[in-house]
Design a protein that fits this description.
The protein is α/β, with parallel strands linked by helices and 553 residues long. 40% of the residues lie in helices and 18% in strands. Helix 10 packs antiparallel against helix 14 and helix 17 packs antiparallel against helix 18. The structure holds 1,6-di-O-phosphono-alpha-D-glucopyranose. Belongs to the phosphohexose mutase family.
Amino acid sequence: MSGIRGHLPKEQIEAYSELHPKARHLLFSYGTAGFRTLGVVLDSVLFRVGILAALRSKKLDGKTIGVMITASHNPEDDNGVKLVDPRGEMLEVAWEQHASTLANAPNEEFLDALENFIRTTRIDLSKPARVVYARDTRPTGESLVKALEDGLKAIGAEGRDAGITTTPILHYLVKAINTKGTKEEYGEDSEDGYFQKMSEAFRKLVSGRPRIQPLIIDCANGVGAPIAKKLSQYLGETLPFALYNADTATPGALNNNCGADYVKTTQRPPPSLIGVLQQGQRACSLDGDADRLMYYFIDERGYFTLLDGDKIATLVAAFIVDLVKLAGLAESIKVGVVQTAYANGSSTKYLSERLPVRCVPTGVKHLHHAAEQFNVGVYFEANGHGTVLFSPSTLEKLETHEPSTPAQSTALKHLNNLTQLINQTVGDALSDVLLVEVVLAHKAYSAIEWNSLYSDLPNRLVKVHVPNRNAFKTEDAERRLVTPYGLQAKIDDLCKRYDGGRSFVRPSGTEDVVRVYAEAVLRSQADELAYRVAGMVYDEAGGEAIRRPKEFM
Ligand code: G16
């Protein structure tokens, strides 16, 4: 085999490959969150992802690569898989196409595609390969893990099974494994290490503050349930959890009428919490793999009020800016915020008046990279997916800065503890819960006070099923449509007719739908605008709007 360094165990790969045939009629694409589709058709993809992860590890000199098997907020029958790079971040974009190519090669062409890939990306096969993997609670997860393991065995990679855990814990593990024994050591490479690190930082941050009232957590009937339960043991009375929707055994329960996506899109509490939630009481929802977080409460008029990713970003960014000032570091540490087009117009206005704000396309990888450009980058998608990144030079500054007053010293201590509390590898619902609770405790804010920082513009998100969502191409961080030609001009015209009207259309990267977002000053107008734009998408592409209320039919 010319042009390839090291040995490729072809016969072994071929033998295993026969156990995981690729169906000819299926086409897979590595999108916003990896491969995601019906779990039962993913067997061949998982086998190949095993091989790909091993090759990624070899390419990076034996660094450990992560593989997470989850479909997050999607229905229970869906499943998916994504790769995690050595620092705990999403797979390098250039490899997404390689992943799709390998996943789509028919069985008889797979070896050729593999050799071609190894040659063009100049992978040295003599290097070691190490992969750590985990899955969520989906029923298809178990067999998909087996397919992945066959991929690892086929190419002779070393695998470590992290079991059933959350996506953010898997990201944490990858970074912890790869930084072990180095100056940047991230923590002990175990679930226990993750809980220890976070809970210790939390205790320090809330010490001396009034006792925190129990927090209701809707676990989406997913993996967040057992993990929140374990975390609760580490937190003890410092933050009591009341866990709801913690049933991971009943078929069909996952993300069904519960979870972060449900509350965000329906703008209602999970039905299981009706009657449980008392006025003003804080509650939150995780999603199926616990990487998204939504807070909410019932206000004094009995209305359900969401505290989404934008509200979390605002709360957290303002808190960090204050601490940086108090620590005497305002001149050298600049805080910035990253959002997407889904960010509520009011949040963008509120934040832009105080901080640099960037808008990027949907997908954690885009937000994460943009946030890395700031000394402290706070990134949150409105759907509750986000975290805070401290740049390496900022971390060093925080560690070495000599405070000149006791007040500076306290603020500095808080900032250093925050760097331990926050999962900086990816959005992490449970780490974000702790972060929010710390800020609320420090500010002595109730949910009502937090919400009053700014008023959200009423908004509506609608899904439209279309025959080909790829016909929808966007620009300007997904705020404008390039194709279908002429549709954007019609949306612009329509928006002008609504006070504060804004709407955009983009193809989903995780579901086979086109998403329509609209906001306006009045609730009725935001709804009307959303369904009118959805109607235009429908007319243009021959689709079907989901959750279209009768009055707009
Ligand atoms: C994934 C991505 C998020 C994205 C979401 C929805 O979340 O990680 O960045 O916002 O999908 O994407 P889309 O609108 O393109 O379907 P998750 O929580 O499902 O992994």
